[in-house]
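We treat protein structure as text, and this decision shapes the records that our systems exchange. Such a record has a labelled line for the sequence and another for the backbone structure tokens. The record that follows is passed on verbatim for readers who wish to inspect the format:
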Amino acid sequence: MKKISVYTLVLGAMMMASCQKSLLDPKPQSDLDAGLVFDTPDRIASQNNGLYTVLKNGKFLGGKFQIANEARGEDYSNELSNSVTLALTWRRNVGNETQEVKEIWSQGYLTINNANLFIDGMAAQGNKVVGDSLGKIYVGEAKFVRALSYFSLLQLYARPYWDGTGGKPGLILYLEGHKEKGNYAKARSTVADVYTQILKDLDEAEVVLPKSTAGTVKAITHANYYSVVALKTRVYLYMGKYDKVITEAQKIVTGTTSFSSPGGHALNTEIAKVFAPPYTTTESIFSLPFTGTTGDYPATQTQLGYYFAPATLPYGGNGEYSLISTGIISDSSWKSATDTRRKFLFVVGSKNFLVKYPTPNPYTDWAPIIRYAEILLNYAEALVKQNNSVDPTALALLNAVRHRSDPTVTFAAGDFATPTDLVNAIWKEKHIELLGEGFRGMEVTRTQQNFVARGGVVQTLPTDTKYIWPISSDELVYNKLCVDNQ
């Protein structure tokens, strides 16, 4: 029997929910036979919680994925030149053997396999135990996790959708769970095929998941109708399908000057509170929670606060990355005197550090994955692109995001000579608003921009091979049907 890379496996303890305790309250089931983990409602609930435990691992969406996307952009200066803390990503010079290339790929596929095993187990036994209605909800959550994982991996390891309308090599699509080592060699599907599967999962999840009230712990930490629709606006935006973005956004965005969802989502009046305990604002659509319980926070050198926050008290980070003076912080439209988002910048000597994640070791700030502010800006961009105009609703959406942090700035139609000018303003607003949340690298590739030169690192063009990451060497060694990016 051929060996396979560890990414495809979630053996007993992983599938039977993590032994970590958390706000998601997974119960360890590592002493149970794999065939029994779906035999009681409590055990099934534990497996459901375990989906998020694997997703929030620091090697994936608990930290390292976001840090990699930030480090690739133009906003940071690498302070310590440590290859373990993504110095090669910052230099845009990763290879198949680079640690983060292997770890994010591996943990991403562990998450996908965990979701697949859960879906398989529910079909085989779990649905009979919990009943059809609850079973559908649980499976819907698993499909959301699988879709989010595939989408995230696409942004690093595959060419953007605009390159050949999704015709370039994408990811390896596994829709069945793997319980043990075996020969799972499989070729990469196209980017378009992966997006098709992502949307299929999200469409199926949308019709079965509840419309949870915004601002509650479960509404933020478990998939529901609103998080699924919100993610769909992102997915369609990255595909350039602006009409679909509008259709999805209109399900969860109502209003003319201030905006909200039918479930109560809205911009929080103070952005700082979105990133402060208890992390349960109505702006938070989907976040990954952490606590100080041993094992329920990202492991060493994967935490957001560890990378971005300075060592200076009260932050106690490691100061791995400061904000470079030529990055977005230099933008004159982002007013130092009046924009409260500037309070996320902390000066140490002559350097600025991002303190969106201010809690020191063990770094328990929740990782925001989807915020309402992003959805408003997704919607705004889609309106301009679809209508090819300085769309008034798009302008109102842009103003809503800016006004929340800086009421002294009001964008007017006359400020934009062309629709492209308005799109550029929306892109800039997203850059400022989502700084440090893992979007920058993805936004650069989505919008066909160059990775600009900075700090001795040369510019990377969309045609360059290093515009995207190579495939993990583990995959290439054990899966001979997989080809590397060229």
The longest strand covers residues 284-288. The CA atoms of residues 113 and 174 lie 8 Å apart. The two ends are 30 Å apart (CA to CA). Residues 1-23, 25-34 have pLDDT under 50 and may be disordered.
